[in-house]
Amino acid sequence: MNTGCYGFRRLLERRLMGLPDPPRVSELDWHQHLHGCGDCRALLHSEEALEVLLASLPELRLPADLAQRVLARLRAAGDARLDELLAYDSGDDSREPFAAPPGLAARVLANLAPERAGRSLDGLLDRAGEVDVPARLGERVLAGLAPHRKPGRIVGSASGVRFRILRAPVMGLAAAALVACLALAAFWRLGTDRAGPGAGTHATVIGAAPEAAPEEELLAALDVLEHWELLADVRDPDLAAFNRFDASDEVQLEFFGAELLMDEFSSEGSGGR
Amino acid sequence: MAVWPENARALTRVMLALALAGAALGGTATRLQDRDEPAANGALLERWNRLTVEERTRYRARFEEYRRKDPGVRAVMKERAKHLDLMARRLHGTLSEAERERLAGLPPGRRREILHEMLAAEARDVGRRIRESLPSGMRQRFDGARPEDRARFITSVRGKLSNQMGVVFERLGRELGLPPGRIQRLKDLPESQRRPEFLALLKRRLSRDLSARGLPAGISRDAWRQLLEMPPREFFDAILRLRETHPEIGLPHGGGRGPAPSDPETRRRLSAMRRAMQPISPAERLELSALSREERAAEVRRRKRSRVLEVIRSEGLLSEEELRALAARPDPSFFREVRELVSGRNPGHGPGQAPGGQRNPVPGGRRARGDGERP
Q1: Residues B303, B277: contact at Cβ < 8 Å?
Q2: Do B111 and A253 lie within an 8 Å CB cutoff?
Q3: Which residue of A has its CA nearest to B168?
Q4: pLDDT at position A190
Q5: Which of residues 63-122 of A touch B (CB under 8 A)?
Q6: Chain B residue numbers touching A260 (CB-CB < 8 A)
Q7: Between the CA of residue A194 and those of A189, A273, B32, B143, B146, what are the distances in Å?
Q8: 20 to 30 A Cα–Cα from A71, which one of A83, A97, A115, B286?
């Protein structure tokens, strides 16, 4: 885990606790780190899955007559202070308030101290140890999400399911901007970085006018056009000789040339040009 | 004497390169065939589609210029482009698997630069070979001509060669025992058909001659058989390169360069000097790929100078003082002097004499391979 992970997890913790982000943090920062850090992506996914799971649990409701039945049982047990205690809860302010036992606040704080020390997200995670993921949790979570998904959205906030992390709509915009930037970069690279002779890439330009198909004659001359810099050089005497004599001339010169040309050369006197 | 192993190594290298080029040819066979067959327009279109927009624009401008050229010039350009492809495959074939991977791993721009330099060095070397096959008077006029006059000069020389093709057919036909009617039909062929027929006939003639005289030192029967199996164009591409180190490969009259030196020691020295002056190998150039183009060119020249000087020193061809004087010359003058030295036509000294009146180190030498890199 590096500094980026600490920063990211601190932000995540703030979000989980419902605290606002520091003003300097943009939504893009989240994605920049998530893009390159598999551990934090996994952590985020597990948090999201937990959120989904918790949100999908049925809301517990107590039986309507439970309170009456409990009170009846307590009265039957002969608890004399019961009605006095209930009177405090009923909003009757005429009664004397309970006096807190002396030293209670200090004792509570002292007991809470270790708990407070471990409240940071990493502290809690470290203390949690290995978590056994329920079998097919992912599938069940996805199945649970399916009815709430809207087509065409990568990240959704469906009714009844609360994404604390990704609920801000600007997050979706940032992700779209990031994807667009990556796609443009990829196009740019494909357009400029050809793999070499005979292994280039298509020169696709977004928005460019469609190019006319090459003439057959041009295609037939493609090998000449590829070697043009060498073939068209007439200043270098060696290249000029290479370019203007063909294979047959070369062989004829090599095996017969001087002898035969001298015949013609001498028949022209000093001419020959 | 170290003639045999040295020649054997040289031939092994050539044959290996040819074999690898064959393998590479297999890999890119469709590309080559596609260029010869109109039916392969799809493959050409695919190559076109792989170009970037900038490259297509550049190619269209080049095509306009190409279209304005004389049809004869266009035909030669096309033939030379095929020759360059063949060269590129052969050069690539000389690289080891690891070197090919290294080349493929270079940034595209740098890779194209290196490939272009390899090809340019080879093309210049072939050009120098052609130039030096010209009679000396013609060569001097060619070298001294203005660039715009060179094209006319070459057209004139090609015309003369074409005029003499009939004489060549007569001679080859007689030597091969062809009936007079067949010889006449060959002479009457249109220009475009006479040239491939000439190559095929000369291949037969060389093959018969070498079978009768015995193969040159260092060339095994297997190697020779592999050469003979090549089509005439590829066969002569290999033969012309082999002649640099095996000047005895040729017709009895010696052709355009005269007979090979008969003294084996002279032939060995000549071969050593020519090898030293050949372009640096593709693998060696690849080693220099981290350098800038200018730094690489300087390093190539430095290595070739050092290679040439080493041969001269180890063969004891010049005295220490002469060697120092030669080493002190700037690149253009150094390479010119060495070429003159090997060819025995240095105007500053008599035939067979090195600078300073010393005996020519390779008295049978008529010409040398070029420095391959413009100084």
Answers
A1: no
A2: no
A3: A256
A4: 52
A5: none
A6: 160-161, 164, 167-168
A7: 9, 46, 21, 39, 38
A8: A97
pLDDT, tens digit (0-9, with 9 covering 90-100), for A29-81: 667 777 778 888 888 888 877 777 777 777 777 888 888 888 888 888 776 67
pLDDT tens for each residue of B145-166: 888 888 888 888 888 888 888 8
Q: What pLDDT sits at residue B305?
A: 92
Nearby residues of B116 by Cβ (< 8 Å), 6 or more positions away = A229, A230
By the CB < 8 Å criterion, does A255 face chain B?
A: yes
Give yes or no for residue B31 having a pLDDT over 50. no
Q: Which residue of A lies nearest to B254 if distances are taken between CA atoms?
A: A255
Task: For residue B48, give the nearest of A222, A239, A248 by CB distance.
Answer: A222
% of chain B residues with pLDDT over 90: 26
User: Which residues 193-232 of A have a C-beta within 8 angstroms of B?
Assistant: 193-203, 205, 208, 211, 214, 216-232
Per the document, the length of chain B is 375
Place of tokens 């979706």: A172
Mutation target for A interface from B164, B206, B246: give the one with most A CBs within 10 A: B164
- For the question of whether the overall pTM of this predicted structure is more than 0.90, the answer is no
pLDDT interval class at B15 (50, 70, 90): low
DSSP structural state of residue B359 = B
On whether any CB of chain B is under 8 Å from the CB of A238, the answer is yes
- At A261, the pLDDT band (50, 70, 90 cuts) reads low
The model's pLDDT over A83-129, given as tens digits with 9 standing for 90+, comes to 777 776 655 555 555 566 677 777 777 776 665 555 555 555 555 55
The partner residue sitting opposite A231, judged by closest CB among B31, B81, B150, is: B81
- What is the distance between the alpha carbons of residues B133 and A253, in angstroms, rounded to a whole number? 6
Chain A CB contacts of B31 under 8 Å are: 198
DSSP state of B256: G
- Best probe of the B interface among A187, A204, A206, A219, by most B CBs < 10 A, is A219
| Mean pLDDT value of segment B66-85 | 90
- B205 inside 8 A of chain A by CB: no
User: Secondary structure of chain A in the HEC alphabet?
Assistant: CCHHHHHHHHHHHHHHCCCCCCCCCCHHHHHHHHHHCHHHHHHHHHHHHHHHHHHHCCCCCCCCCHHHHHHHHHHHCCCCCHHHHHHHHCCCCCCCCCCCCCCHHHHHHHHHHHHHHCCCHHHHHHHHCCCCCCCCHHHHHHHHHHHHCCCCCCCCCCCCCCCCCCCCHHHHHHHHHHHHHHHHHHHHHHHHCCCCCCCCCCCCCCCCCCCCCCCHHHHHCHHHHHCHHHHCCCCCHHHHHHHHCCHHHHHHHHHHHHHHHHHHHHHCCCCCC
User: In terms of CA atoms, which chain B residue is nearest residue A211?
Assistant: B53
Say which residue, B263 or A166, is predicted with more confidence: B263
* Domain spans, chain B: 95-133+263-375, 142-188
* Residue that is written with structure tokens 């193969």 in the block: B215
Closest chain A residue by Cα to residue B373: A238
Q: How far apart are CA A249 and CA B53, in angstroms?
A: 37
| pLDDT band with cut points at 50, 70 and 90 for residue A154 | very low
* Interacting residues of B32 by C-beta distance below 8 A, sequence separation 6+: B25, B85
Assembly ipTM: 0.74
